[in-house]
Amino acid sequence: MRHLIVGIFLSCGVVLSSFAQSENHEGKGRGLKKEFYQNLSEEQKSQLDSHKALRETHKSKMEATFTEEQLAIVGNKDLSRRDRRKALLPTMTAEQKAMAKAHKEEMKAKNEAFKETLTEEQLAQYESLKHKRKRRGKRRSGK
């Protein structure tokens, strides 16, 4: 009986400590993002907000053109985002591919215009966040 109680306490300790470590790790990235966002001017913040709204508009326009098969792929939460994209690409029509390409080019141009408004310090923070986001994606995909 004593061994059982000790085992339960040890298990709880391990679970709680691992949970605390994962919270600290995730919070660090959010803190950097928050700090970057707080250092932006109101105009820069509105640019970022309009980028987010534009992404949502693009997403809804694309999904409006999807077939049932494509919607099933997008809705399959068992697949990773990368796997959903790989499964979706062969099913896309030429018009959908052109639309995706146009959206990508538009977002790239808006991003470049946004980067031109940043100070050197803000740009360094921005590039650091971008680099961390790319590394996180590679770590998740197993590269």
Automatic annotation (TrEMBL):
Location of the region described as Disordered in the Swiss-Prot/TrEMBL record: 97-143
Bias (Basic residues): 130-143
Compositionally biased residues, Basic and acidic residues: 102-118
Top-level division of the source organism's lineage: Bacteria
Protein name, entry field: LTXXQ motif family protein
